[in-house]
Amino acid sequence: MAQAGPRAAVMLHRAADEALAGLKPGTPMPTQRAEIEGYIALARGFDPETRYLENHRGHLMVVKPEERGFITADLIRATTFTATEAEVRGHIGALGDAGYTQFVICLMPGQEAALADWARVRQGFA
Amino acid sequence: MGKHAMDFGIGLPAAADSWTIVKAAEELGFTHAWFYDTQMLTADCFVAMAAAAVNTRRIRLGTGVLVPSNRIAPVAANALASLNKLAPSRIDFGIGTGFTARRAMGFGAVKMKAMEAYIAQIYGLLRGETVDFEMEGERRKIRFLNPELGLFNTCDPIKLHLSAYVRARARSRRGLPPAGSTSSATSKPAFAKSRRCARNGKRPGTRSAIFRPPPSRSGACSLMARARIRRAPWRRRARAPR
Q1: Of B46, B138, B210, B225, which cross-links B79 as Cys (Cβ 3.0–4.6 Å)?
Q2: From the list A13, A60, A119, which residue is nearest B28 (CB)?
Q3: Tens of pLDDT along B146-198?
């Protein structure tokens, strides 16, 4: 949750931006998901004048307590590279086959220990 | 597993002491560190990058991504050139129209046209050109006035990287298929190569790097910079006989 949850929460924030402020998400998002609909409903309760402040607090860094209930395992699976190590290697290999040249790991504050895990994955592509 | 080698980078919310993580990443073989430039959420990315620049030797350091509206062009060009002095040829300029950095302040993305003009200003300044710059509703011509003093580095190249969203829009405008990742850790600072090229069996090079040192400064840049310092007018005046 601490490592991948913030990335999944990005989808919630963007969905709220789109639904409540008319800002386009930019990248395709999973649609008609209960988690996203639930978060949008929550965001409707934020102060309308400064809704963006509450919406983006902790963005891509931490999962806020009030949004934790919407960060399900299924949403993480659908919106991040979270999987078994073998599956992750397969996904990255597929990216290489598709022409991608660099894979970037988003490190969350306080979760820097993940660097060693990703270094192990990296060695398979050196 | 794919048959192609893959670079691994880290993306991190800029902290004043991010260099400790970047140094560890370098030692573990990571090739790039991308610093979020989101002023209302993280520390200043250029401060964090400067500390990383002086504490690392190989890893490339990039803004991931800078948003034009949040730093005026002369400031951004200066910051990039200053970093380039600390870590020559290791600086990447990642730029996008802005999601998090602007949305955290309640604004939508900047226009593509404005971003393109901004990039032209940045690289014009880095090439030593005089560029048009507008501020407070007035237009002026600006340039770096004393690059020869070597206070910053406008000689070594700084690569340009566009975010996936920007690339997707640009490609869409040109009638090309989308190239970016849709929902992965790679989509923050994006490093997509063209799927069109992949289909053609080609491995396209690093994305566009439009900044090149002017011909007159190619080669031993630091030596030339020192030579120019020796010829600097204030030094000539200081040495002139009374």
Answers
A1: B46
A2: A119
A3: 999 999 999 999 999 998 655 555 555 554 433 332 222 222 322 222 333 33
